[in-house]
Specification:
The complex is a heterodimer of chains A (about 140) and B (about 450). Chain A is of the alpha/beta class and about 140 residues long. Chain A is built from six helices and five strands. In chain B, about 50% of the residues are buried. With about 450 residues, chain B is an alpha/beta fold. The chains are: A alpha/beta (about 140), B alpha/beta (about 450).
């Protein structure tokens, strides 16, 4: 693991088994110069947190594609605080809610849950990367 | 004939085994009390005399020994997250034959410091953080260890980016720096640590424990006894260049204070679609249940298995079983002396095996998602293992070995537990596994031949 690189924990939360997007993100983030710890699919909140503690991660990037994201993500910020990961950057993206809801409202709800940024379905990885670099103060 | 003497300095007994390596066979076994407080050679000489009374005078070509005397190799380990580096540190220590008295996670606090000082281990294994990951915890813990003082060696096997800092903090202490037990997230790398533990044991612990006096007579104490056991079961499973092994196996040693479980198997899921969770498992795994034992830890068996269930299996009332348990706990050298105590002993051994193997084996859980049923496995899948080796007083001195052992098998009451199914039970009646592990270091073929001959099938699972 290279010292000067920022470390990201990525994975698909809950009972979600959508593996393709997760692989794409892994390659895109690695290519963009991040240390990426990929926990794969069906990842629990505790697994995200444990991995972030051991690797001293800079951000947790949660994916959810099966509509249960809102339930699965609830309490993650509080658990991070509890585990000593205060202030760690939290992202979430995918089909994170059920049905067609205006994304501004969804984003607001996830903001209230402690997620720094939320991304709607179909967001290209370049957009996430741009925000990650901005939020983690990575110079190109 | 070329006889070799194998010695196991145990906490209570010094066991000697004579084997012919020319025409491989067991010549005899004997034991006597371990005399570590005076001169360890006294107990050895006594055991040898008993042995030669059976075999006649033997001109030994070599003498090898292992030891778990003076408390065994007493270790403490620390890591960061309980399920991650702390677990890796514990797994590494157990696999090196240590007795792990406690494993700490996160930052050590003042209570931990007092406890560590009181325990005064033989070795402290300091871990935490992946390489390039968290450094704060291991540095904090190194500072705590410096404050505590003491002269036991410390093995540093954590985040490599903190190794130099920790070494500086612990300057003046015997510190061995080695590779991280978890260099990257979810990667287990325990062999380098185990190598250092072996070296420290050989170079320092034997001397410190007053075992070196025995060295003049013998070619050396080569390893802690559990390491010898692991060497033997690995040999038995894998075989040698010229001789086939018996394949994957599980071995259980039900002792007075602890129950040790060993497995040699990859332990991967039956169905490749099953998701694997948690730390990767070592191919040869040892777990020690400190609360499960037939005398010193007899209450732990009842606590874990339940008095009602244990009494049911023994065919005794709960009151009667309780009385017997109290008696065994108070008189740790007491053997079953009538039908009721025999039934109690066998039921307790059955529960000890069930609890210890259940804790050792992996687990399969089911999750129903939108994509249907998804299976998740944590730990090792031992369902396909078909050899089950047992040893320990309560299993050797009974006709019901097979029935007792079968409590370690797959159980329809607990279908998620990945315990072995359809096993042949092999009994180590002469208690020679550790001795053969020692012998395997020099004469692997002879050791394997003798193991295959001496481990007797027991199919009485009625």
């Amino acid at each position: 693991m290279e010292q000067n690189k920022k470390t990201l924990i990525i994975g698909v939360i809950g009972a979600d088994v959508h593996a393709v997007g997760n692989q794409i993100l892994y390659h895109a983030f690695t290519e963009a110069g991040f240390n990426v710890v990929n926990l794969g699919v069906m990842v629990s909140q505790e697994e995200f947190i444990n991995a972030a503690i051991e690797t001293n991660a800079d951000a947790i990037v949660v994916s959810s594609l099966y509509g249960q994201g809102e339930l699965d993500c609830r309490g993650l910020r509080e658990k991070c605080d509890e585990a000593g990961l205060e202030g760690i950057l939290l992202y979430v993206g995918g089909n994170i809610v059920i049905g067609k809801q205006p994304f501004e409202e969804v984003e607001k709800r996830f903001k209230a849950m402690g997620f720094d940024r939320s991304f709607p379905p179909g967001t290209p990885p370049e957009v996430d990367i741009e925000y990650l670099k901005k939020d983690l103060h990575v110079e190109d | 004939m070329k006889p070799v003497l194998l010695i196991d300095f145990g906490s209570t007994y010094t066991k000697v085994t004579a084997a012919d390596v020319d025409a491989p066979r067991l010549l005899g076994t004997a034991n006597s009390y371990t005399t570590i407080e005076t001169d360890i050679n006294d107990g050895l000489a006594d055991a040898l005399e008993k042995l030669e009374r059976q075999t006649g005078k033997l001109d030994f070509a070599a003498r090898y020994a292992c030891s778990s005397a003076a408390g065994g190799l007493r270790m403490l380990a620390s890591g960061l997250v309980p399920e991650l580096t702390a677990e890796a540190a514990k797994t590494a220590s157990l696999g090196a034959g240590a007795k792990v008295l406690k494993t700490y996670a996160f930052q050590l606090n003042e209570d931990d410091a007092d406890e560590i000082k009181a325990i005064d281990p033989d070795i402290f294994l300091l871990c935490g953080g992946t390489d390039g990951g968290n450094t704060a915890c291991i540095i904090h813990n190194a500072e705590v260890l410096r404050e505590i003082g003491g002269d036991y060696p410390i093995i540093l096997a954590g985040n490599r980016n903190a190794a130099r800092t920790c070494s500086r903090i612990l300057e003046g202490r015997e510190v061995h720096v080695t590779e991280n037990v978890m260099p990257a997230f979810g990667t287990l790398n325990i062999e380098p640590t185990q190598q250092v533990i072996r070296e420290v044991f050989l170079n320092r612990i034997i001397e410190a424990k007053g075992l070196s006096k025995a060295s003049e007579l013998i070619s050396g104490i080569m390893m802690p006894t559990p390491s010898a056991v692991m060497a033997a079961i690995k040999l038995l499973a894998e075989g040698t260049e010229t001789q086939k092994g018996i394949g994957d196996l599980v071995a259980v040693d039900v002792g007075g204070a602890t129950t040790d479980v060993y497995s040699v198997a990859e332990g991967l899921p039956d169905d490749p679609r099953t998701a694997l969770r948690g730390l990767p498992e070592p191919y040869i795994k040892r777990t020690v249940e400190g609360d499960i034992g037939m005398r010193y830890s007899i209450h732990g068996i009842v606590d874990a298995a339940g008095l009602k269930k244990t009494a049911q299996i023994a065919g005794l009332t709960e009151e009667r079983l309780s009385e017997i348990v109290e008696r065994f706990a108070a008189h740790t050298d007491l053997l079953p002396y009538d039908d009721e105590t025999q039934r109690a002993d066998e039921a307790l051994a059955s529960m000890a095996i069930r609890v210890a193997v259940t804790r050792h084996a992996g687990r399969l859980s089911e999750i129903f998602g939108l994509g249907g049923l998804q299976l998740i496995q944590t730990g090792k899948n031992l369902k396909n293992v078909d050899q089950f080796i047992v040893t320990g007083g309560s299993l050797i001195h009974t006709e019901h070995t097979g029935r007792i052992a079968s409590y370690g098998f797959y159980d329809a009451e607990d279908p998620g537990s990945l315990k072995p199914q359809n096993c042949t039970v092999l009994v180590d009646r002469s208690y020679i596994i550790a001795a053969m592990g020692l012998l395997s270091q020099y004469y692997p073929d002879a050791a394997l031949t003798i193991l295959k001959e001496e481990l007797k099938k027991d199919d009485r699972t009625e």
